């Protein structure tokens, strides 16, 4: 996938060229085909509802079994649309995906998310299905990223969790390697007839350019794949999904550099950028001081807290679950720290944690508001960011605002 | 500070992985409780080590003088679950694994006031136990409340009969004990059915009491469940009855609400999320829920970003140019303060820490966010009044004096107003 990868803060002439290229890139909305697969009852639809439809964990009990494939288009950040294929996991469906619908399902896949139920009785059978899926995937979309979620970890005793997870990870990696090896062996005859036409609906057009040539080597999936232990009852789910979407977000490097210069300019300890509906962390920046925060899981925790809070608000105000629930939040903890969460661009919220001090706080709020235009590209394929944030402009802005705050 | 201290008792990733030497048969809930107890113990030790001042001189060492909550009821009616959920923050779904209580479980609740919570095993009848008679004065001698828990999803006739006997006993010699009946486990019952049960139980008790010639016994009924906020609300009402001079507190809050155009204000005990006072506007479960969840959000944020020590260099840099001031002088308020604007109708919610245990949370009227500075000043005055109030009621030095803070709120202490 040829993303817009170059940092924009480069030299003048090079930057101009990249900017033009970026403009072209940004014009089209990016669509990504995301396959959500796993055995029936492993919790695929539950996690999807929690992340994208703001269900509470206990409400997912109401969900029934998914029949065939449940297609949904999730608009994420204006310029990225996820084509989420929630594939029902009953065996009849699985066989169908692997035989009749094989090309339809497995071509042009951007990401495969495979869900294992840790409590499953028949691990061997689960793994056999998994191996089939992986071989089909490698055959049709070998550039696809693979994420494996070992789900329902809350059912395992906390003390043994890590152990159980590690063992399962080793097992899945071995199986993946086996699946890839098999495809490699069969490769001559499999890739003989030209690669299947991109028949998939939606995402096909945008993805066509990035299709690998039939001769490109099959990547070492067992190395590049990522595994997560998840549970819908805690924040682990947000951690997994944040890393899944992290790779899909276009212009990530631009976001990161701009966030960093914003952070330095306003003297923040940490900045998190959330997507509006799912409250997944899109990007983050942490100051060297903030790095010493002992809570390594704080990002997914923030997602979890804010999402739960959103739910409380919707109960209180009687507005729909997916509606916007709050616009501004600030918290000053005496001489300890201060923070604020505020609506940033149309599709994002920003959380800033910073040192205490009224003047510093107020000028940071003004500066964040002033920085909004630089992030407007998050909302849609309208304009390309020009040159990143002119850091000099930001700093002068800070000086002005800081002065105002002190006065 | 309430939020900082409290955060230690919450789930801590580092402690979860610590190997715990507990026998295999212990359930997860028990483990959790062990952990909470252990953390509380460590925290107390830590406090002692750091020389942190233990709660003011009011902490009279002997158990006398502390209001007491007695939890009684049939076995398996949910007494221990209630006390674990409310006082030990056990997640409600983990109470399934609690084992039955075999002896009286005594807890003390360290907050703005000190409470004792006694959890009685259901199989023991305190009044009718010839083999091992209880010392009635030791149990009921202290002022407090008897909380009788009735399982609404079970046959409650026997529970009601025992409750009647208990009330009669108490009415004879310990009239100062409030009797609070928790009609428990009402989650999952329809609203009509809940009210039917409540009516039925009320009538049965009143009939029996008037047959025995007891009128106007102080019996109150609450519909509760540990799976929502109702249990906290019920406890709030129980505890409010035990607070001396509650009227003054409420008057202060009512005054604040009127001056600042608040819809509803609560004074929360941060540790238990019980509210100890609110203004005089009608009770409203929804606003209690959102305020209580707001306290939760603040606790979580505090834990993640406020519970660890920053380096001295960080401080030095922040106190250097261009600020040239000590960090403490750069902040407007040394206590935690927070505000949030809800997207619908721009209704703000505000929170202000009062002391180590209490926080003031209020829901404001639409569009009053611009007036925040003024409101903050008013809240400051009220918080000062509250602090004085608690100093006076705690030390009981001048039991009849009207707390100074109240006059400040009424008088010229209030700056401008929200109108």
Give me the strand/helix succession of chain A. Answer: HEHEEHHEHEHHHEHHEEHEEEHH
* Count, helices of chain B: 14
- Could you describe the largest sheet of chain B, including whether it forms a barrel? 6 strands, mixed
Strand content of chain A: 15-25%
Radius of gyration of chain B, Cα only, in angstroms? Answer: 23 Å
* Biggest interchain interface, per-side counts: A-B, 51 and 54 residues
State the helicity of chain A in percent bands: 40-55%
Global mean pLDDT of chain B: 78
Largest sheet of chain A: 6 strands, mixed
Helix content of chain B: 40-55%
Strand order within the widest beta sheet of chain A: 2-3-1-4-5-6
Structural class estimated from helices and strands of chain B: alpha/beta
Keywords (chain B): GTP-binding, Hydrolase, Membrane, Nucleotide-binding
Catalytic activity (chain B): GTP + H2O = GDP + phosphate + H(+)
Protein name (chain B): GTP-binding protein
Region (Disordered) (chain B): 1-22
Structural write-up:
The complex is a heterodimer of chains A (407) and B (419). Chain A has 407 residues and is of the alpha/beta class. Chain A has 13 helices and 11 strands. In chain A, the strands form 2 sheets. Chain A has a 6-stranded mixed sheet with strand order 2-3-1-4-5-6, sandwiched between helices. In chain A, a hairpin with a 4-residue loop joins strand 10 and strand 11 (348-354). In chain A, helix 5 (123-140) crosses helix 6 and helix 12 packs antiparallel against helix 13. Chain A is globular. The relative contact order of chain A is 0.13. Residues 1-15, 190-213 and 382-407 of chain A have low confidence and may be disordered. By secondary structure, chain B is α/β, with parallel strands linked by helices. Chain B is 42% helix and 17% strand. In chain B, the strands form 2 sheets. Chain B has a 6-stranded mixed sheet with strand order 2-3-1-4-5-6. Chain B has a 5-stranded antiparallel sheet with strand order 8-7-11-10-9, sandwiched between helices. In chain B, helix 6 packs across helix 7 and helix 13 (372-395) runs antiparallel to helix 14. The longest helix of chain B is centred in the last third of the chain and has 24 residues, at 372-395. The radius of gyration of chain B is 23 Å and the shape is globular. Chain B starts with a helix and ends in a 9-residue tail after the last helix. Chains A and B meet through helix 11, strand 9, strand 10 and helix 12 of A and helix 2, helix 10, helix 12 and strand 9 of B.
């Amino acid at each position: 996938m040829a993303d817009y990868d170059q940092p924009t803060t480069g030299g003048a002439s090079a930057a101009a060229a990249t900017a033009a290229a970026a403009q072209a890139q940004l014009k089209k909305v990016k669509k990504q085909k995301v396959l959500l697969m796993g055995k029936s009852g492993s919790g695929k639809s539950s996690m999807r509802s929690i992340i994208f439809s703001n269900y509470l964990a206990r409400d997912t009990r109401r969900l029934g079994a998914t029949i065939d494939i449940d297609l949904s288009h999730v608009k994420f950040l204006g310029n990225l649309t996820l084509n989420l294929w929630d594939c029902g996991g009953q065996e009849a469906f699985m066989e169908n995906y692997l035989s009749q619908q094989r090309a339809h399902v497995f071509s042009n896949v951007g990401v495969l998310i495979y869900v294992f139920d840790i409590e499953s009785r028949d691990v061997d059978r689960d793994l056999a299905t998994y191996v089939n899926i992986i071989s089909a995937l490698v055959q049709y979309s070998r550039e696809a990223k693979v994420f494996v979620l070992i789900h329902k970890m809350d059912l395992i005793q906390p003390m043994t969790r890590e152990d159980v997870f590690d063992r399962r990870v080793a097992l899945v990696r071995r199986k993946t390697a086996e699946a890839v090896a098999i495809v490699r062996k069969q490769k001559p005859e499999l890739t003989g007839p030209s690669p299947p036409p991109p028949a998939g609906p939606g995402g096909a057009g945008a993805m066509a350019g990035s299709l690998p040539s039939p001769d490109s080597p099959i990547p070492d999936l067992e190395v590049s794949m990522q595994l997560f232990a998840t549970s819908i009852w805690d924040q682990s789910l947000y951690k997994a999904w944040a890393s899944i979407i992290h790779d899909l977000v276009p212009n990530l490097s631009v976001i990161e550099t701009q966030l960093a210069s914003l952070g330095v300019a306003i003297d923040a300890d940490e900045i998190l950028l959330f997507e509006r509906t799912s409250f997944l962390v899109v990007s983050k920046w942490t100051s060297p001081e903030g790095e010493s925060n002992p809570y390594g899981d704080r990002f997914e925790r923030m997602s979890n807290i804010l999402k739960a809070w959103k739910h409380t608000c919707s109960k209180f105000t009687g507005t729909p679950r997916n509606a916007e629930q709050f616009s501004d939040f600030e918290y000053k903890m005496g001489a300890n720290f201060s923070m604020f969460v505020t609506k940033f661009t149309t599709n994002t919220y920003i959380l800033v944690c910073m040192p205490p001090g009224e003047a510093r706080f107020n000028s940071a709020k003004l500066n964040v508001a002033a920085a909004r235009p630089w992030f407007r590209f998050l909302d849609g394929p309208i304009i390309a960011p020009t040159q990143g944030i002119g850091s000099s402009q930001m700093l002068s802005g800070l000086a002005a605002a800081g002065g105002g705050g002190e006065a | 500070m309430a939020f900082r201290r409290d955060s230690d008792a919450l789930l801590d990733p580092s402690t979860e992985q610590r190997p715990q030497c507990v026998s295999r048969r212990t359930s997860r809930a028990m483990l959790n409780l062990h952990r909470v107890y252990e953390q509380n113990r460590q925290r107390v030790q830590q406090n002692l080590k750091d020389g942190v001042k233990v709660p003011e001189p009011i902490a009279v060492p002997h158990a006398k003088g502390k209001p007491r909550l007695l939890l009684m009821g049939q076995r398996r009616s949910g007494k221990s679950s209630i006390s674990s959920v409310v006082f030990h923050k056990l997640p409600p779904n983990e109470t399934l694994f609690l084992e039955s209580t075999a002896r009286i479980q005594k807890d003390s609740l360290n907050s703005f006031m000190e409470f004792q919570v006694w959890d009685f095993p259901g199989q023991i009848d305190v009044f009718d136990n010839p083999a091992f008679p209880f010392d009635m004065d030791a149990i009921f001698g202290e002022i407090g409340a008897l909380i009788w828990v009735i399982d609404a999803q079970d046959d409650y006739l026997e529970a009601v009969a025992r409750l009647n006997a208990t009330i009669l006993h108490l009415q004879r010699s310990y009239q100062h004990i409030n009797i609070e009946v928790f009609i428990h486990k009402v989650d999952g019952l329809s609203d009509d059915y809940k009210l039917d049960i409540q009516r039925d139980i009320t009538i049965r008790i009143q009939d029996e009491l008037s047959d025995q010639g007891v009128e106007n016994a102080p019996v109150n009924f609450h519909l509760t469940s540990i799976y929502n906020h109702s249990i906290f609300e019920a406890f709030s009402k129980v505890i409010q009855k035990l607070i001396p001079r509650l009227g003054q507190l409420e008057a202060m809050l009512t005054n604040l609400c009127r001056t600042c155009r608040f819809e509803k204000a609560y004074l929360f005990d941060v540790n238990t999320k019980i509210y100890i006072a609110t203004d005089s506007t009608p009770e409203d479960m929804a606003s209690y829920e959102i305020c209580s969840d707001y306290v939760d959000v603040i606790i979580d944020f505090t834990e993640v970003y406020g519970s660890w020590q920053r380096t001295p260099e960080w401080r030095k840099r922040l106190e250097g140019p261009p600020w040239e001031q000590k960090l403490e002088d750069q902040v407007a308020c040394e206590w935690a303060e927070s505000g949030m604007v809800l997207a619908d109708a721009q209704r703000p919610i505000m929170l202000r820490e009062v002391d180590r245990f209490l926080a003031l949370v209020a829901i404001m009227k639409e569009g009053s966010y611009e007036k925040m500075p003024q409101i903050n000043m008013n809240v400051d005055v009220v918080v000062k009044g509250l602090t004085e109030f608690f100093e006076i009621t705690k030390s009981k030095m001048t039991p009849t004096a009207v707390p100074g803070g109240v006059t400040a709120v009424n008088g010229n202490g209030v700056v401008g107003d929200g109108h």
